[in-house]
Amino acid sequence: MKTIEMEVPEQLYKKALTLVKEGWFRDEKDLFAEAIRRFLDTHRPELMEKYIRNDVEWGLCGHD
Question: Are 28 and 20 in contact (CB under 8 A)?
């Protein structure tokens, strides 16, 4: 396990604490670990490349 230190905007932190207080997550660590996991799952290089290619194709062809 690695320990990280990070700064987050106050409003984001307050929203995170609300989710913990409402019982959605065990604690802040659990919430932030899940957030990072989900981000990495949806931002894999192959997916990002696909979306970028689609955006470029749309931009070149001008299709809506």
Answer: yes
